[in-house]
Every structure is written in C-alpha cells, then in structure tokens.
Amino acid sequence: MQEVPVDFFVEGIKTFFSNNASALEDEDVVYFRPLLLADNPQISLAPPGSYRFLVIGTIAGSYGVAGDAIRLQVIDTGRVVPGGIGAVKTCANYAVSLTHRFGANRAAEFTDVLYLDAHHRRRVCETSTSNVFFIFADNRVVTPKLNDEILAGITRDSILQLAPSVLGCSIFEEDIDIDEVATSAVGMFMSGTARTIQTVNSLTYNGSEREFQEHAIAQRLLSALQECQRGNSEFSEWCFPV
Length: 242
Description:
- The chain is an alpha/beta fold.
- It contains five helices and twelve strands.
- A five-stranded mixed beta sheet has the order 5-4-3-11-12, sandwiched between helices. The chain has a five-stranded mixed beta sheet with strand order 8-7-6-9-10.
- Strand 4 and strand 5 form a beta hairpin.
- Helix 3 crosses helix 5.
- The chain is globular and about 50 Å long.
- The mean pLDDT is about 90.
C-alpha cells in the first residue's frame, strides 16, 4: 500500500465537516478513523492495483468505564507475533485481542489486559487499545521503547513532546520489566486517540493486585493535551481550522 499524504487526510477531515456541519453541535467531539483498502476486482495472489482511502468520523463519548476506574490484568502472552504487524495500525491486531480482553469472564472484572513481549514474556508492551506509561517513586516517568510489537501512537508521541514543558523533564523510553512495575511503580496511565490519557487504578499480576495512588502527573499531561486540542498552547500548529 502506498502511504497516504498528510494533506490528503486533512482534506478528508475538512470534507467531513463541510458535509455534516448541520448535524454537529459545538461541544461534539468527533473521532476520525482513516481507512485504506484495496478496491480493484481481482482474486489472485498479487498486490492490488488500486486502493480506496476513506475517512470515517463518528461523534465520540467518553471511552472507558464509569468513574475512570481502570483495572488491568497482566496476561502471560504477547499481543502480536514477533516480526509481524504489531507496529502497524491494522484491524488484525484488534481482532486477536478480543479473546484475551473478553474471554474467561475477564471483562466483568478488568477493563483491559496488559501484554508482555512475545519473545521472553518479561517486558511490558501495551494494552489491547493503548500505549502505557509508568511512574516510579522518584517521579521518573517511563514508557516502553518502540519495537515491532508496539504501536507508535500519535497520543504517545504528543505526550513525549509535551513532557519537558509540562513536567520539567523528559519521559524515558526503555525496556520495562514487569517485576519492576509490580514492585516499584506508584502510578500508571494509558494513552490513545480515543482514550486520550487515562489513569490506571490497579494492575493485577500473578494474582496480586497493585493499586496506584499517583494520578497528578497524568492529569497535568491530559490538561496540557486538551489545551493543545483547543489551539491554546505552544503546540498550536498541531491544529487546523475546519
């Protein structure tokens, strides 16, 4: 598949608003999903000759559970196959996570699952829908280093750029052992386009639940991100009028 030019994507968003302006209220939040798929009529083992690019927009509410009581469970498996498509935004990665997230009555007790690396099942990767960040007692904030099992999320990147001005320090990108999280982390939050930034209340690993008390850092980053979305920050170039 060819890479879609940014300007082409932006034009799709503007077209959405111009076609649907009468159906939207000022306070509405619209979630956009770009979709690229083959559309030429062929059944053969060969690359498609043409593609169709779609921009799907939906009015979005709060993504999560009531009161943002986020409870995660670590599962002893990888989210994706090493060397595969784990770093790509593709439907296949979400499909395989459904069994893990909703199977064995897990959904009744936990909001989501936290995956470990598929190679050694020791390093933290991400949840089924979000990148993750951890806070330790010295206020050190760490997020897993990108690899072929972790999506380079846009909100993740925004947080990394915001951190120096909001927190006065950079966020570390490094491999994180699950035992360090289970014994030393004082806070955790998730990031994603739909979730924005949400604090995690607890993480269960090997049957032991660790509750997190540090939520202020995530809230400061969320407030800064929301100001960016309103065009009221030094990163106002991230926004464009529609």
